[in-house]
Known about the structure:
alpha/beta; Rossmann fold; 2 domains; seven-stranded parallel β-sheet; six-stranded parallel β-sheet; 13 strands; globular; binds uridine-diphosphate-N-acetylglucosamine
Amino acid sequence: MTPPFRVDLIVGARPNFVKIAPIFRALRARGTFQPRLIHTGQHYDFLMDRVFFEELRIPAPDVNLKIGSGPASEQVAKIMLALHPLFVEDRPALLVVVGDVNSTVAAALTASYLRIPIAHVEAGLRSFDREMPEENNRVVVDQLSDLHFVTERQGEANLLAERIAPERIKFVGNVMIDTLYDALPRAVPSPQTLAGFQAAPAFHAAVAQKGYAFVTLHRPSNVDDPTKLAALIAALSAVSERLPLVFAVHPRTRANIEKAGLGAKLASPNLAVCEPLAYLASLGLMRDAKAVVTDSGGMQEETTALGVPCITVRDNTERPITIEEGTNTLIGADPARILPVIEDILRTGGKSGLKPALWDGKAAERIAAEAEAFLTARPEKA
Ligand code: UD1
């Protein structure tokens, strides 16, 4: 094929925006692509959505499918119904999808039925835990994809084990870290974010003295079961007596806290609770934290890039390099294990790590170059 190459990029949920921003820019900068940005509308709250477009300097999406929340099957089906006519009317030469959310799998399935080639960014990550919807999404998307962009070497090994042809796999590095390096100079300093919290004066005094840990939790396995959620909140409350905590609460988590009547249990003097944070505030809080406590995939990687100890409240991770080379510690699902790791961090400073190979801020440029080579080598009419 010859340029210009029509490429569709799909975003739907918060982590997608962080990943697509540098890819969109790199495709534009190359001059051979005509990228179209399609937002499924899986996430729609200002703090889960629009603020990311502003802060990450991504143009408003060309199309927003506005599918919103709902059971996974409904989300996927609605996205497919809405995407199909768009692809038929203005057929892209390539579909680019990122990560593992429901929007990712829905778009990949739609393109596969129309024989549109698919590039998957962040391919090959595996937790080997089929209880997680994201794991099933990853496996399906990788089987459907023609180009697999890998963030860490283990991803390549996982894809080869699933009989993906080696020539389709490109180890390019991590686009989420491209965004991190680009945004770091603009990160909101943590004192500025903390000053905006309506926490008890004791909280601010404790932070000034000891620092703080930054907490985010939203995995269904941690927050959907009221008993587990209660144990998690009790554990956070206990940890906050040793180190102040800032807990940015995802809408899924907030809804479950309200449903289970657990709001009052969160009221501890050294525990500040806030809405989901915008990217630049979150980045500043992560950078300056003594530790991060999370079940997010992206934050395991971001803390490794920042050199901040991360405590992951999960039984497994699809991002093993953050443990082998980075600052991540997997504690399993028992929240009582957070406190001993925090104690260790207070004593020793916690786990230090290396920066993984190709997490250098240039992953998106490599992706654009590989996508161009792939499309150039294709016959004119597929
Ligand atoms: C999704 C992704 C998850 C990712 C997370 C980041 C899947 C399977 N999961 O999970 O991998 O880590 O996004 O945030 O795609 N809600 C709002 N406002 C919004 C979005 C959601 O209030 O803007 C509420 C709704 O009650 C909704 C719930 O959050 O039902 C869950 O949203 P959903 O998109 O289904 O999954 P997440 O838990 O956000």
